[in-house]
Amino acid sequence: MARTVKTSAPDFGEFIKSVPPPRQVIIRTLKSVVEEAAQAASNSETDNAFRRSYARLTIQKGIGPHHAILTISRDISAAAWAM
Questions:
Q1: Where do the structural domains in the chain lie, given as residue ranges?
Q2: Whether 73 contacts 34, CB under 8 Å
């Protein structure tokens, strides 16, 4: 549910633009951070639990890379939430 804001630009006059609510912006940012962490963990040079899980999902179970990253993202979120 986006809110609309009236704004003006020097060349275009007045127009209305859609602005996402602050909570939605925070959720998108947090989602991006967790997905980037999952990507970094799966591409890491060092051995870690998330990299092993990524390899298990893609090689043994045949899950696509994008879905494996989403699964790793959920694992990272669960680990952070449990702390």
A1: 21-82
A2: yes
